[in-house]
Structure prediction request, 974 residues.
Amino acid sequence: MFPAPDIDVHSEVPIYRQVFQQLKDSISAGRLPKGSRLPATRELAGLLGLNRTTISAAYEMLESEGLISGQVGRGSFVTGGTHTETRGIDWKALLTPGASAPPPSAASREAISFASSRPSELLFPTDEFRLSCEEVIGGAGVASILQLGSPGGYSPLRQRLIAEARHEGVMGPGDDLIVTSGCQQALDLLQRALVRPGDTVAVEDPVYPGVKNLFLGAGAHLTGVRMGPDGIDLDDLRRVLERERPKLLIVTPDFQNPTGATMPAVSRKELVQMARAAGVALIENGSYSDLRYEGHPIPAIKTEDTILLRSYSKIAFPGLRVGWAIGPHAVIARMIEAKQLSDLHTDQLSQAVLLRFAESGRLEAHRQRILKAGAEKLRAVLSACERHLPEESMFTRPQGGMNLWVRLPEPLDAGELLMRAQRDNVTYLPGRYFTVSRPDPGGLRLSFAGLTVELIRAGVSILGEIFRGELERTLSARSLEPAPALV
Amino acid sequence: MFPAPDIDVHSEVPIYRQVFQQLKDSISAGRLPKGSRLPATRELAGLLGLNRTTISAAYEMLESEGLISGQVGRGSFVTGGTHTETRGIDWKALLTPGASAPPPSAASREAISFASSRPSELLFPTDEFRLSCEEVIGGAGVASILQLGSPGGYSPLRQRLIAEARHEGVMGPGDDLIVTSGCQQALDLLQRALVRPGDTVAVEDPVYPGVKNLFLGAGAHLTGVRMGPDGIDLDDLRRVLERERPKLLIVTPDFQNPTGATMPAVSRKELVQMARAAGVALIENGSYSDLRYEGHPIPAIKTEDTILLRSYSKIAFPGLRVGWAIGPHAVIARMIEAKQLSDLHTDQLSQAVLLRFAESGRLEAHRQRILKAGAEKLRAVLSACERHLPEESMFTRPQGGMNLWVRLPEPLDAGELLMRAQRDNVTYLPGRYFTVSRPDPGGLRLSFAGLTVELIRAGVSILGEIFRGELERTLSARSLEPAPALV
Prediction:
């Protein structure tokens, strides 16, 4: 099989150079042996969602290094370059099969980036953070924070989280709580506790890559449940539960990533009943729940039959990795075991600082500020989409969170158009990173929370211009095509 | 199969109560169905390394609750207690098979604990830590520390670690570096990158539970290589490499945990050649290397064919989870992918604070102080062992690190004697936590770094008294036994 290059659109390395380097590596490593035929530039461009000239530039570099040679009418062939490994260990051969590469976690600083679902640095309350930090390091307990800790979590933080969860009604007598290094680790520990290779895991479709790649990497069979305007589509879920009998079902009921959709209370009740009847382990990702900018909050799903994940990353500081999971004793006990094997315990300095940030009331004050700012950003992105996107586009209308989902009209391909957008200094993540079993070439995620209102407007305006221009171009090109012969 | 209780010797819950509760749980959950026979008290006591009276106390409690019933000459039988689950989801049935439970990570505060391989809180330079923290949070870069970071590590720290590694000669042109949440996570990421279920992984025997349980949990077949006074036994390793063809070999060449043994330079060279010839991936755990109290430092094994793990946990603060791995590009790239799926990235506050602690020179000043204190503790534990342990005991003589290994003379069983020691307020970890394929009932680990010289002396003196007393008792009991009849 042809080893297709894996392109990082956010890298500082130009894309043609990435294609060149990766093909060169494949030739040196013998994955593209002498005599093998490279795909045509058009074909590879299509495969990678890139411009054909990008591929041609990469092929020219390979040719100039004597690694491939083009033959008119036949294509390009590998002519050399394979060298025998002089090293003792062939590390690449030892690697386990990798999951598909996750999208880059941070975008380049100069661009207007809609690519990362994260808060804005400009809103970080650095003075309040410093105060919390100083109070922690000035306190008497500092030596115990520096000492080896407990895999279940830093006890004072854990106690506070338990008290809050009981007060909110999301922690019953059969439940326990574990502090994790963010919500991503909670999912990883659940994967270790509950999933064996070959098990079926049902996720939302589209879903964010952190879920998708984690369970694929664990050897699970992923099945996607269609997302609608009211969150996960219960009719589709019913079919999936009946036909595929998944072991796990992971749902983000509030401001789902990437669609921004929220499940109404009545669907949540029905979801719990369906999951219970099917004997499927229901995991509720609540990492965005505290970020509602409009409308009324809807209680968490959490019952004695579900596991709830929460995190400080979205409402405080993602650079401090602290989240938690609440669920049945037996599951949390196994997660604690897995946690000890993963990394012993969560960093205690950050646990202590976030505890202080919360118990001092600074967290809630900060949350009120980001809710206010978030409401403005949400209005800005929605009205900019309304104004600038091609008329036939569809986009979701979230009431909170950090993301919305756009579907461009056919034949636009959000993956292909990304290169063009990046040339104009705007970036986003196209649908392919999120789809599970329903390719959605027109889909893309706009993560708006990290940007200012001004940049949101400017960015969507630039995107709108590119998308509208491309739509006009393709439609006029089509109208110029000769009508197909009827006979 | 009988569901043997899993006892936590460090718990505040009395052991007979733990046995009672776990058997009760097994009965309720139907794992011990009505009519099934419990093991005889003597049998279960032997299995768990506990006193027979402990088991009897637990059985009496079960009987008083009407859950079991004893029949003279036949044993104890389950008489009731199974109740049907009213909950919708049987979470226990959904769990993947767990690894054997790791030993508890922290001991109770009152006891003299030789159980945990960690530094002493009394030596933590809290003022220097506070200064480093204040310098970080007072700096201009604080917002970028709080923002989502890179899975490879906080860039300023990563750059410093790379420069240091190059300077030390442990990072070649083909190598890259990833910052991890401590050394344990580096091992976990390597497990994800390199190990498939059924792969053979060679480890030292005895080895610390964090290695053993991690790879067992990943479905690997573990094979133990005998430890000698000079570290891993190369003759035994040769046999293992030939017969078992492991994919990975994990070695701690300096002050190995639990034995404290160090490999001489000449064995390290031979080890590398053997690993290379066998095509096995050699992983060097260097977490204790900077803790040499006596003798001359021996250069790290690290070649272009190996992976080196390092950590701040042993020389600074284990509560701040920061370690790193250096190895071939392809492996580090895969570890970075796995890191992103595990927990996105390592906590940035701790990375920044430890960077400041290191670059300010405070880390090196602290290291000099713990080397001085460590030398005193090492002398204290060795002379106390010399003085107090039964004459026929053997123990290792490390030149650094945090641990030494004791082997009590036959027929003493370190697991059985632990209960007695705990009654006298001294605790340690018996050999069963560390053995891979060579049971060593007389073996135990003494972790001395976390204790003061006074407590080391007091603790070993108490242990010596118990061990000598037990040895005298068993020997005199033997001499009273009637000689076996010859015909």
